[in-house]
Amino acid sequence: MGNPALVDPATIRETAAEAWIWGYALLENYRTMYPQAIDDADPRFVGGFGVFRHCSDPLSPSDANLAAPDADTPYSWAWLDLRAEPWVIEVPAMDRYHVLPVHDLDTSYVGFIGSRTTGQAAGRYLIAGPHFVGDGRQGFDGVLRAGTELVGIVGRTHLAGPQDVPALRRIQSQYVLKPLSIHLGTPPPPAAPEPLWPVWREEVLETLEFFVFLDFLLGFFPVLPAEANLRSRLAELGIGSGDFEPAVLALDIREAMQQGIADGRARLAAEAAEPESVGWFGTRAQIGSDYLARAVGARKRPYGLPGEEAWSTGLHCDEQGNRPPDAAEHDYTVHFPAGHLPPARFFWSVAVYGLPERQLAANPLGRYSIGDRTPGLVHDADGGLTLHIRRERPADPAEAANWLPAPDGPFAAVIRVYGPEPQVLDGRWQCPQLGMHG
Protein backbone atom coordinates (compact mmCIF):
# COMPACT_ATOMS: atom_id res chain seq x y z
CA MET A 1 0.00 0.00 0.00
CA GLY A 2 1.14 3.56 -0.66
CA ASN A 3 1.07 6.30 1.92
CA PRO A 4 -2.29 8.08 1.70
CA ALA A 5 -1.43 10.15 4.75
CA LEU A 6 0.84 12.19 2.46
CA VAL A 7 -2.22 13.29 0.46
CA ASP A 8 -4.68 15.82 1.84
CA PRO A 9 -8.24 14.62 2.57
CA ALA A 10 -9.77 16.93 -0.06
CA THR A 11 -7.73 15.24 -2.79
CA ILE A 12 -8.60 11.81 -1.46
CA ARG A 13 -12.29 12.77 -1.41
CA GLU A 14 -12.17 13.84 -5.05
CA THR A 15 -10.26 10.71 -6.05
CA ALA A 16 -12.83 8.54 -4.26
CA ALA A 17 -15.70 10.33 -6.03
CA GLU A 18 -14.03 9.95 -9.43
CA ALA A 19 -13.19 6.30 -8.75
CA TRP A 20 -16.71 5.54 -7.54
CA ILE A 21 -18.17 6.85 -10.81
CA TRP A 22 -15.50 5.09 -12.87
CA GLY A 23 -15.95 1.81 -10.99
CA TYR A 24 -19.74 1.90 -10.74
CA ALA A 25 -20.23 0.02 -14.02
CA LEU A 26 -17.77 -2.69 -12.89
CA LEU A 27 -19.74 -3.34 -9.72
CA GLU A 28 -23.09 -3.23 -11.50
CA ASN A 29 -21.70 -5.78 -13.95
CA TYR A 30 -20.53 -7.96 -11.05
CA ARG A 31 -23.99 -7.62 -9.53
CA THR A 32 -25.28 -9.52 -12.60
CA MET A 33 -22.30 -11.83 -13.11
CA TYR A 34 -22.25 -13.12 -9.53
CA PRO A 35 -25.70 -14.80 -9.52
CA GLN A 36 -25.43 -15.91 -13.13
CA ALA A 37 -21.92 -17.36 -13.28
CA ILE A 38 -20.73 -17.89 -9.69
CA ASP A 39 -23.55 -18.57 -7.22
CA ASP A 40 -24.89 -21.97 -8.28
CA ALA A 41 -27.64 -21.76 -5.65
CA ASP A 42 -29.19 -18.72 -7.32
CA PRO A 43 -32.11 -19.40 -9.72
CA ARG A 44 -30.49 -17.00 -12.18
CA PHE A 45 -27.38 -19.22 -12.43
CA VAL A 46 -26.52 -19.85 -16.09
CA GLY A 47 -24.23 -22.80 -15.41
CA GLY A 48 -20.92 -21.07 -14.71
CA PHE A 49 -18.44 -19.62 -17.16
CA GLY A 50 -18.39 -20.74 -20.78
CA VAL A 51 -22.03 -21.74 -21.24
CA PHE A 52 -25.08 -20.06 -22.72
CA ARG A 53 -28.37 -19.71 -20.91
CA HIS A 54 -31.03 -18.83 -23.47
CA CYS A 55 -34.36 -17.12 -22.91
CA SER A 56 -36.61 -18.47 -25.68
CA ASP A 57 -40.14 -17.69 -24.57
CA PRO A 58 -41.65 -14.25 -25.08
CA LEU A 59 -40.78 -11.93 -22.20
CA SER A 60 -43.44 -11.29 -19.58
CA PRO A 61 -43.81 -9.24 -16.37
CA SER A 62 -42.19 -12.13 -14.46
CA ASP A 63 -38.88 -11.42 -16.23
CA ALA A 64 -37.15 -8.84 -14.04
CA ASN A 65 -33.45 -9.42 -14.76
CA LEU A 66 -33.13 -6.09 -16.57
CA ALA A 67 -34.82 -2.72 -16.48
CA ALA A 68 -36.85 -1.92 -19.61
CA PRO A 69 -36.24 -5.36 -21.22
CA ASP A 70 -36.66 -5.72 -24.97
CA ALA A 71 -39.67 -7.95 -25.58
CA ASP A 72 -38.77 -8.42 -29.28
CA THR A 73 -35.38 -10.06 -28.82
CA PRO A 74 -35.05 -12.77 -26.12
CA TYR A 75 -31.66 -12.84 -24.45
CA SER A 76 -28.78 -15.29 -24.53
CA TRP A 77 -26.53 -14.85 -21.47
CA ALA A 78 -22.94 -16.08 -21.16
CA TRP A 79 -19.78 -15.24 -19.20
CA LEU A 80 -16.22 -16.12 -20.20
CA ASP A 81 -13.02 -16.41 -18.18
CA LEU A 82 -10.18 -15.63 -20.61
CA ARG A 83 -7.27 -16.01 -18.18
CA ALA A 84 -6.15 -19.49 -19.27
CA GLU A 85 -6.99 -19.29 -22.97
CA PRO A 86 -9.30 -17.65 -25.51
CA TRP A 87 -12.78 -18.89 -26.30
CA VAL A 88 -14.41 -19.64 -29.64
CA ILE A 89 -17.99 -18.74 -30.47
CA GLU A 90 -19.81 -20.25 -33.44
CA VAL A 91 -23.07 -18.92 -34.91
CA PRO A 92 -25.29 -20.53 -37.56
CA ALA A 93 -26.60 -19.01 -40.76
CA MET A 94 -29.99 -17.39 -40.20
CA ASP A 95 -32.44 -15.03 -41.83
CA ARG A 96 -33.42 -13.09 -38.71
CA TYR A 97 -31.91 -10.22 -36.76
CA HIS A 98 -29.40 -11.20 -34.10
CA VAL A 99 -26.51 -9.68 -32.21
CA LEU A 100 -24.03 -11.26 -29.79
CA PRO A 101 -22.20 -8.32 -28.19
CA VAL A 102 -19.16 -9.01 -26.01
CA HIS A 103 -18.49 -6.58 -23.15
CA ASP A 104 -15.58 -6.05 -20.78
CA LEU A 105 -15.85 -5.95 -16.99
CA ASP A 106 -16.65 -2.23 -17.11
CA THR A 107 -19.46 -2.90 -19.66
CA SER A 108 -17.50 -1.30 -22.53
CA TYR A 109 -18.15 -3.31 -25.68
CA VAL A 110 -15.32 -5.35 -27.17
CA GLY A 111 -17.16 -6.07 -30.42
CA PHE A 112 -20.36 -7.29 -32.03
CA ILE A 113 -21.19 -10.51 -33.87
CA GLY A 114 -24.47 -10.27 -35.70
CA SER A 115 -26.64 -9.10 -38.56
CA ARG A 116 -25.29 -5.55 -38.69
CA THR A 117 -21.58 -6.23 -38.33
CA THR A 118 -20.85 -9.78 -39.55
CA GLY A 119 -23.95 -10.58 -41.60
CA GLN A 120 -26.33 -13.50 -41.68
CA ALA A 121 -23.89 -16.24 -42.73
CA ALA A 122 -22.51 -18.86 -40.36
CA GLY A 123 -19.29 -17.83 -38.67
CA ARG A 124 -16.60 -18.73 -36.15
CA TYR A 125 -15.01 -16.03 -33.98
CA LEU A 126 -12.20 -15.91 -31.43
CA ILE A 127 -12.60 -13.98 -28.16
CA ALA A 128 -9.16 -13.35 -26.65
CA GLY A 129 -8.08 -11.73 -23.40
CA PRO A 130 -5.56 -8.91 -22.97
CA HIS A 131 -2.61 -11.25 -22.40
CA PHE A 132 -3.18 -13.57 -25.37
CA VAL A 133 -0.12 -13.75 -27.62
CA GLY A 134 -0.71 -14.09 -31.37
CA ASP A 135 -3.27 -12.69 -33.78
CA GLY A 136 -5.44 -15.84 -33.80
CA ARG A 137 -6.82 -14.97 -37.20
CA GLN A 138 -6.16 -18.24 -38.99
CA GLY A 139 -9.34 -20.24 -39.33
CA PHE A 140 -11.62 -17.59 -37.83
CA ASP A 141 -13.99 -15.08 -39.36
CA GLY A 142 -13.00 -12.45 -36.83
CA VAL A 143 -11.15 -11.81 -33.58
CA LEU A 144 -12.51 -9.85 -30.63
CA ARG A 145 -9.77 -8.69 -28.26
CA ALA A 146 -11.03 -7.98 -24.77
CA GLY A 147 -9.47 -5.45 -22.43
CA THR A 148 -10.30 -7.52 -19.31
CA GLU A 149 -9.87 -11.17 -18.36
CA LEU A 150 -13.59 -11.65 -17.65
CA VAL A 151 -16.19 -10.75 -20.27
CA GLY A 152 -19.92 -11.11 -20.72
CA ILE A 153 -22.31 -11.69 -23.61
CA VAL A 154 -25.92 -10.50 -23.61
CA GLY A 155 -27.10 -11.77 -26.99
CA ARG A 156 -30.39 -10.89 -28.66
CA THR A 157 -32.23 -12.87 -31.34
CA HIS A 158 -35.47 -11.69 -32.91
CA LEU A 159 -38.66 -13.53 -31.95
CA ALA A 160 -41.66 -13.09 -34.24
CA GLY A 161 -44.21 -14.22 -31.64
CA PRO A 162 -45.19 -17.29 -29.58
CA GLN A 163 -45.51 -19.43 -32.70
CA ASP A 164 -41.86 -18.67 -33.52
CA VAL A 165 -40.43 -20.10 -30.27
CA PRO A 166 -39.46 -23.55 -31.68
CA ALA A 167 -37.54 -21.96 -34.55
CA LEU A 168 -35.83 -19.55 -32.17
CA ARG A 169 -34.76 -22.41 -29.93
CA ARG A 170 -33.24 -24.26 -32.87
CA ILE A 171 -31.15 -21.20 -33.69
CA GLN A 172 -30.09 -20.54 -30.11
CA SER A 173 -29.00 -24.17 -29.71
CA GLN A 174 -26.48 -23.52 -32.49
CA TYR A 175 -24.75 -20.70 -30.61
CA VAL A 176 -21.70 -22.71 -29.51
CA LEU A 177 -18.98 -21.74 -27.02
CA LYS A 178 -15.77 -23.75 -26.61
CA PRO A 179 -12.24 -23.13 -25.32
CA LEU A 180 -9.64 -22.64 -28.04
CA SER A 181 -7.85 -25.86 -27.05
CA ILE A 182 -11.05 -27.89 -27.54
CA HIS A 183 -11.59 -26.24 -30.90
CA LEU A 184 -8.02 -27.03 -31.99
CA GLY A 185 -7.99 -30.50 -30.46
CA THR A 186 -4.87 -29.70 -28.42
CA PRO A 187 -4.14 -30.27 -24.71
CA PRO A 188 -5.65 -27.54 -22.55
CA PRO A 189 -3.35 -25.08 -20.79
CA PRO A 190 -3.11 -25.09 -16.99
CA ALA A 191 -6.32 -23.85 -15.41
CA ALA A 192 -6.35 -20.39 -13.88
CA PRO A 193 -6.63 -20.37 -10.08
CA GLU A 194 -10.14 -20.18 -8.68
CA PRO A 195 -10.69 -16.71 -7.19
CA LEU A 196 -12.23 -16.16 -3.79
CA TRP A 197 -15.34 -14.48 -5.18
CA PRO A 198 -16.82 -11.86 -2.82
CA VAL A 199 -20.52 -12.40 -2.13
CA TRP A 200 -22.58 -9.64 -3.68
CA ARG A 201 -24.67 -7.49 -1.36
CA GLU A 202 -26.70 -4.45 -2.38
CA GLU A 203 -25.35 -2.22 0.38
CA VAL A 204 -21.82 -2.49 -1.05
CA LEU A 205 -22.43 0.46 -3.38
CA GLU A 206 -22.92 2.84 -0.44
CA THR A 207 -19.99 1.94 1.79
CA LEU A 208 -16.21 1.70 1.73
CA GLU A 209 -16.69 -1.95 0.83
CA PHE A 210 -17.31 -0.62 -2.69
CA PHE A 211 -13.54 -0.25 -2.95
CA VAL A 212 -12.95 -3.76 -1.59
CA PHE A 213 -14.99 -5.12 -4.50
CA LEU A 214 -13.31 -2.74 -6.93
CA ASP A 215 -9.91 -3.88 -5.64
CA PHE A 216 -10.89 -7.50 -6.35
CA LEU A 217 -12.21 -6.76 -9.86
CA LEU A 218 -9.12 -4.78 -10.82
CA GLY A 219 -7.21 -8.03 -10.57
CA PHE A 220 -8.89 -8.98 -13.86
CA PHE A 221 -8.41 -5.54 -15.42
CA PRO A 222 -4.94 -4.53 -16.67
CA VAL A 223 -4.18 -0.83 -16.46
CA LEU A 224 -5.10 1.01 -19.66
CA PRO A 225 -3.03 4.05 -20.70
CA ALA A 226 -6.05 6.39 -20.61
CA GLU A 227 -6.80 5.35 -17.03
CA ALA A 228 -3.25 5.14 -15.71
CA ASN A 229 -3.48 8.34 -13.68
CA LEU A 230 -6.62 7.29 -11.80
CA ARG A 231 -5.30 3.77 -11.29
CA SER A 232 -2.07 5.23 -9.88
CA ARG A 233 -4.00 7.38 -7.41
CA LEU A 234 -6.06 4.35 -6.40
CA ALA A 235 -2.86 2.37 -5.91
CA GLU A 236 -1.69 5.02 -3.43
CA LEU A 237 -4.73 4.07 -1.38
CA GLY A 238 -3.96 0.38 -1.79
CA ILE A 239 -6.80 -0.24 -4.25
CA GLY A 240 -5.70 -2.63 -6.98
CA SER A 241 -3.28 -4.55 -4.79
CA GLY A 242 -5.72 -7.41 -4.27
CA ASP A 243 -5.80 -7.07 -0.49
CA PHE A 244 -7.32 -3.66 0.15
CA GLU A 245 -8.61 -3.32 3.69
CA PRO A 246 -10.29 -0.02 4.65
CA ALA A 247 -9.90 -0.72 8.38
CA VAL A 248 -6.13 -0.16 8.23
CA LEU A 249 -6.55 3.39 6.90
CA ALA A 250 -6.49 6.39 9.21
CA LEU A 251 -9.89 7.66 10.30
CA ASP A 252 -9.63 10.94 8.36
CA ILE A 253 -8.76 9.01 5.20
CA ARG A 254 -11.75 6.71 5.62
CA GLU A 255 -14.00 9.70 6.24
CA ALA A 256 -12.71 11.47 3.11
CA MET A 257 -13.32 8.35 1.02
CA GLN A 258 -16.83 7.96 2.43
CA GLN A 259 -17.53 11.59 1.55
CA GLY A 260 -16.22 10.91 -1.94
CA ILE A 261 -18.67 8.03 -2.30
CA ALA A 262 -21.50 10.36 -1.32
CA ASP A 263 -20.28 12.91 -3.88
CA GLY A 264 -20.11 10.30 -6.62
CA ARG A 265 -23.57 8.99 -5.82
CA ALA A 266 -24.98 12.53 -5.91
CA ARG A 267 -23.39 13.23 -9.29
CA LEU A 268 -24.76 10.01 -10.73
CA ALA A 269 -28.24 10.63 -9.32
CA ALA A 270 -28.32 14.13 -10.81
CA GLU A 271 -27.15 12.93 -14.21
CA ALA A 272 -29.53 9.96 -14.22
CA ALA A 273 -32.46 12.32 -13.59
CA GLU A 274 -31.89 13.95 -16.98
CA PRO A 275 -33.76 12.68 -20.08
CA GLU A 276 -32.27 9.80 -22.02
CA SER A 277 -29.36 10.78 -24.23
CA VAL A 278 -26.72 9.30 -26.50
CA GLY A 279 -23.30 8.14 -25.34
CA TRP A 280 -24.30 5.72 -22.60
CA PHE A 281 -23.22 2.61 -24.49
CA GLY A 282 -20.48 1.71 -26.91
CA THR A 283 -16.93 0.51 -27.32
CA ARG A 284 -14.10 1.90 -25.23
CA ALA A 285 -13.21 4.21 -28.13
CA GLN A 286 -16.78 5.50 -28.34
CA ILE A 287 -17.23 6.11 -24.61
CA GLY A 288 -13.81 7.67 -24.16
CA SER A 289 -13.41 9.28 -20.74
CA ASP A 290 -17.12 9.96 -20.18
CA TYR A 291 -17.35 7.56 -17.27
CA LEU A 292 -20.37 9.36 -15.81
CA ALA A 293 -22.39 8.62 -18.96
CA ARG A 294 -21.29 4.98 -18.78
CA ALA A 295 -22.40 4.85 -15.14
CA VAL A 296 -25.80 6.29 -16.05
CA GLY A 297 -26.23 3.58 -18.67
CA ALA A 298 -25.26 0.87 -16.16
CA ARG A 299 -27.78 2.26 -13.69
CA LYS A 300 -30.73 2.94 -15.99
CA ARG A 301 -30.40 0.40 -18.81
CA PRO A 302 -27.72 -2.23 -18.11
CA TYR A 303 -26.22 -3.73 -21.29
CA GLY A 304 -27.98 -1.31 -23.61
CA LEU A 305 -26.74 -1.31 -27.20
CA PRO A 306 -25.06 1.63 -28.95
CA GLY A 307 -27.17 3.72 -31.27
CA GLU A 308 -25.82 2.33 -34.51
CA GLU A 309 -26.94 -1.15 -33.43
CA ALA A 310 -30.25 -0.31 -31.78
CA TRP A 311 -31.31 3.32 -31.55
CA SER A 312 -33.87 4.05 -28.88
CA THR A 313 -35.58 6.97 -27.28
CA GLY A 314 -38.13 7.35 -24.52
CA LEU A 315 -41.40 9.21 -24.80
CA HIS A 316 -41.08 10.79 -21.37
CA CYS A 317 -43.98 13.23 -21.46
CA ASP A 318 -47.15 13.83 -23.44
CA GLU A 319 -47.95 16.70 -25.80
CA GLN A 320 -49.11 18.84 -22.86
CA GLY A 321 -45.84 18.35 -21.01
CA ASN A 322 -47.15 15.95 -18.35
CA ARG A 323 -44.24 13.85 -17.07
CA PRO A 324 -44.51 10.94 -16.79
CA PRO A 325 -47.61 10.03 -18.81
CA ASP A 326 -50.28 8.30 -16.77
CA ALA A 327 -52.64 5.78 -18.39
CA ALA A 328 -54.95 5.95 -15.36
CA GLU A 329 -55.80 9.50 -16.42
CA HIS A 330 -55.49 9.59 -20.21
CA ASP A 331 -55.44 7.52 -23.40
CA TYR A 332 -52.49 8.14 -25.72
CA THR A 333 -51.45 7.77 -29.34
CA VAL A 334 -48.20 7.58 -31.26
CA HIS A 335 -48.76 8.78 -34.82
CA PHE A 336 -46.33 8.20 -37.67
CA PRO A 337 -47.25 10.32 -40.73
CA ALA A 338 -47.29 8.68 -44.13
CA GLY A 339 -43.74 8.10 -45.33
CA HIS A 340 -42.27 8.71 -41.86
CA LEU A 341 -42.22 5.30 -40.21
CA PRO A 342 -38.95 4.64 -38.37
CA PRO A 343 -36.25 3.96 -41.01
CA ALA A 344 -34.84 0.57 -39.97
CA ARG A 345 -32.63 -1.98 -41.73
CA PHE A 346 -34.10 -4.75 -39.56
CA PHE A 347 -37.18 -3.75 -37.57
CA TRP A 348 -38.66 -1.21 -35.15
CA SER A 349 -41.02 -1.40 -32.20
CA VAL A 350 -42.63 0.57 -29.38
CA ALA A 351 -42.73 -0.92 -25.88
CA VAL A 352 -44.40 0.23 -22.65
CA TYR A 353 -43.06 -0.20 -19.11
CA GLY A 354 -44.68 0.47 -15.77
CA LEU A 355 -42.98 3.00 -13.51
CA PRO A 356 -40.97 3.30 -11.39
CA GLU A 357 -39.70 -0.28 -11.86
CA ARG A 358 -39.45 0.05 -15.68
CA GLN A 359 -40.77 -3.49 -16.03
CA LEU A 360 -43.33 -5.01 -18.37
CA ALA A 361 -46.89 -4.66 -17.10
CA ALA A 362 -49.34 -7.56 -17.22
CA ASN A 363 -52.21 -7.14 -19.68
CA PRO A 364 -54.99 -9.38 -21.03
CA LEU A 365 -53.60 -9.34 -24.57
CA GLY A 366 -50.11 -10.45 -23.51
CA ARG A 367 -48.71 -7.77 -25.84
CA TYR A 368 -45.70 -5.84 -24.54
CA SER A 369 -44.50 -4.20 -27.75
CA ILE A 370 -45.90 -3.31 -31.13
CA GLY A 371 -44.10 -2.55 -34.38
CA ASP A 372 -43.53 -3.35 -38.01
CA ARG A 373 -43.43 -7.11 -37.29
CA THR A 374 -46.80 -7.09 -35.50
CA PRO A 375 -49.40 -8.92 -37.62
CA GLY A 376 -52.69 -7.22 -38.47
CA LEU A 377 -51.73 -3.57 -37.99
CA VAL A 378 -54.20 -1.18 -39.63
CA HIS A 379 -52.71 1.84 -41.41
CA ASP A 380 -54.44 5.18 -41.70
CA ALA A 381 -56.25 6.08 -44.91
CA ASP A 382 -53.32 8.26 -46.00
CA GLY A 383 -50.75 5.51 -45.34
CA GLY A 384 -49.69 6.73 -41.90
CA LEU A 385 -49.84 4.61 -38.76
CA THR A 386 -51.43 5.44 -35.41
CA LEU A 387 -50.69 3.31 -32.36
CA HIS A 388 -52.98 3.42 -29.33
CA ILE A 389 -51.49 3.24 -25.82
CA ARG A 390 -54.19 2.86 -23.18
CA ARG A 391 -55.43 0.63 -20.38
CA GLU A 392 -58.64 -0.62 -21.97
CA ARG A 393 -59.04 -2.30 -25.33
CA PRO A 394 -60.42 0.23 -27.85
CA ALA A 395 -63.95 -0.41 -29.09
CA ASP A 396 -63.06 0.47 -32.67
CA PRO A 397 -61.62 -2.66 -34.42
CA ALA A 398 -58.96 -0.66 -36.30
CA GLU A 399 -57.78 0.97 -33.07
CA ALA A 400 -57.88 -2.38 -31.27
CA ALA A 401 -55.56 -3.87 -33.93
CA ASN A 402 -53.04 -1.11 -33.11
CA TRP A 403 -53.48 -1.31 -29.32
CA LEU A 404 -50.46 -1.42 -27.02
CA PRO A 405 -51.81 -2.06 -23.50
CA ALA A 406 -50.58 0.31 -20.79
CA PRO A 407 -50.46 -0.20 -17.01
CA ASP A 408 -53.00 1.46 -14.74
CA GLY A 409 -50.75 4.35 -13.82
CA PRO A 410 -47.50 6.07 -14.84
CA PHE A 411 -45.56 4.47 -17.68
CA ALA A 412 -42.63 4.95 -20.01
CA ALA A 413 -42.87 4.30 -23.74
CA VAL A 414 -39.67 3.42 -25.63
CA ILE A 415 -39.21 3.41 -29.41
CA ARG A 416 -36.44 1.10 -30.66
CA VAL A 417 -35.03 1.03 -34.17
CA TYR A 418 -32.80 -1.97 -34.92
CA GLY A 419 -30.28 -1.18 -37.61
CA PRO A 420 -31.23 2.52 -37.79
CA GLU A 421 -30.67 4.25 -41.12
CA PRO A 422 -28.42 7.37 -41.16
CA GLN A 423 -31.36 9.78 -40.98
CA VAL A 424 -32.25 8.35 -37.56
CA LEU A 425 -28.74 8.78 -36.19
CA ASP A 426 -28.18 12.28 -37.55
CA GLY A 427 -31.58 13.59 -36.49
CA ARG A 428 -33.21 14.07 -39.89
CA TRP A 429 -35.94 11.61 -38.91
CA GLN A 430 -37.98 13.07 -36.07
CA CYS A 431 -39.55 10.85 -33.45
CA PRO A 432 -43.27 11.57 -32.94
CA GLN A 433 -44.64 12.92 -29.68
CA LEU A 434 -46.90 11.03 -27.34
CA GLY A 435 -50.33 12.44 -28.15
CA MET A 436 -53.56 12.40 -26.20
CA HIS A 437 -56.45 10.51 -27.72
CA GLY A 438 -59.66 12.35 -28.48
Describe this structure as you would to a colleague.
Strand 14, helix 9 (397-401) and strand 15 (403-405) form a beta-alpha-beta unit. The longest helix has 30 residues, at 9-38. By secondary structure, this protein is of the alpha+beta class. Among the domains are: 40-184, Immunoglobulin-like, CATH 2.60.40; 307-436, Jelly Rolls (Sandwich). The chain has a five-stranded antiparallel sheet with strand order 1-2-8-4-5. Helix 1 (9-38) crosses helix 4 (209-217). It has helices at 9-38, 165-172, 180-184, 209-217, 228-236, 251-272, 284-287, 291-300, 397-401, 422-425; strands spanning 53-54, 75-81, 87-91, 98-103, 109-114, 123-128, 142-145, 150-157, 176-179, 310-315, 332-336, 344-354, 369-371, 385-390, 403-405, 411-420, 434-436.
Keywords:
Immunoglobulin-like; Jelly Rolls; five-stranded antiparallel beta sheet; 438 residues; alpha+beta; globular; four-stranded mixed beta sheet
Distance between the termini: 67 Å
CATH architecture of the domain at 40-184, by name, is: Sandwich
Helix/sheet category: alpha+beta
Q: List segments where confidence is low: pLDDT < 50 over at least 5 consecutive residues.
A: none
How is the largest sheet built, in terms of strand order?
1-2-8-4-5
**Mean pLDDT across all residues, rounded?**
92
Per DSSP, the total helix count is 10
Task: Report the top-level CATH class of the domain at 40-184.
Answer: Mainly Beta
Number of strands: 17
User: Measured on Cα atoms, how large is the radius of gyration?
Assistant: 23 Å
Beta-strand residue fraction: 15-25%
Write the element-wise H/E pattern from the N-terminal end onward: HEEEEEEEEHEHHHHHHEEEEEHEEHE
Helix content, binned percent: 10-25%
State the fourth-level CATH superfamily of the domain at 40-184. Answer: Domain of unknown function DUF1254
